[in-house]
Amino acid sequence: MTTLLGTRLNDRYRLDARIAAGGMSTVYRAFDETLERQVAIKLMNREVSADSDQLERFRREARAVAQLNHPHVVGVIDAGEDEGRPYIVFEYVEGETLKERIRRHGRLAIAEAIAYAVEIGRALGAAHARHIIHRDVKPQNVLIDEEGTAKVTDFGIARTLEEEGLTADGRVLGTTDYVAPEQALGRRVTGQSDLYSLGVVLYEMLTGEVPFKGENQVAVAMKHVREPLPDVQTKRPEVSAALAAVLDRATAKRMEDRYADDAELIADLEDVLAIETARAGSATGEVTAVLKTLPAKAQRRVPLRARRPALTAILALITVALVAAGAVWVATRAHHGTGDLTQSPPPTAQVQVQLCQTCATAFNPLGSSGPENPNEAGYAIDNDPNDEWTTVDYYSHVLLEAGVGIYVDAAPRTTARELKILTSTPGFNAQIYVTDTTPSPTAWPGDWVQVASANDITSDDNIALNTGGVPHRYWLVWITKLPPGGEYVGLKLALYR
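Given the sequence above, the corresponding structure tokens read:
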């Protein structure tokens, strides 16, 4: 094999180093002298290239992966033959395999393991959408690039659902450490089989070891058929019940008890990623990248410091600037007053109205479900940039009533010239109301009087108030329209006089 190093395939690809070798092919790091870039080349071993079945399997891999264009699939660049030996040219991924990462670190951080499972699941979803089953999902076939992103590779035994192929029923293919029960028994394999294997990979990322060991591959395969996976919470007690439930369903023995498709599994993985990030309170590395891609429903669970790191950093810098200028910054939610909400400060002549921590109330007089997230109302006026009050989810992207909102009690009364809003959901519409009468939780508009209106509210917005300098006790942000395509509104607010 080493004698091939330095040789050129079709006078274009120079073989520089051997990366991996298997029974059918060898993978090299190579240099594309035409485009002057590094690539990876899978070259069929000469001793098997005369086998027509093996040759067709190799060509099938090239056809299968060439159909896929996905950020978490190692892409095919080219394919050809040199002196009767076929080869496939892939993008070159600098980094390590997921298996190597597990060997280096042992158990991965829980959120990191889930993030990788999401990325692998999305790659498999792209393949399954084209009716391509991987059939050999394992950490050895997942590459982690220098940025920490997962990319699935080696569709060498993949086949489409429509084809009767060389990997027909009755043959067990794939690594038995991760093999699905139906595949171990030589039965029909579907996308659900890949999902089982992904569940086993997730188990290994969480525990640092494969679930079953045996004297040989057949013994391990039969354990996948007959024995449930060991309890992941026994192996790692800090794993949440929600994550354990996802793992149990992904690795169910009966296909009818397993996730029906990729979308179901990915949705649950996204939810538990948000849950685990909320438990941890922060996120780093690839977890942060995946969090940015979560749907709104899952993002609701994620602390702002994890899903809005840029805003947190800006507020931190402003904190330093304010302290340097001699301003007082209240740095803990344990304090009985609210801190300065300023991101881009209003004119220096204005002073923020100090409110008690229990002075905010969620308000939904027109809705049958009662106030919206009343237990989170205090988040709207505390000085913590990592949280905010939010409405409930409106999956139709439309409010079910004429408006919902949140009001603050500025007892006994206060004058205010501006109301400031910080939000992670810009683009919503709101009106500002005042009253000196205790608001009824079921009456609208009652004694409320409108003093301002704002459309397409930005992430950092100052709304001028038309009160004529008259003081008022209760100040209401009344939301009348969700942001475009949004399912909820989240905000923090402050009054300035």
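The radius of gyration is 29 Å. Try to locate this feature in the token string yourself.
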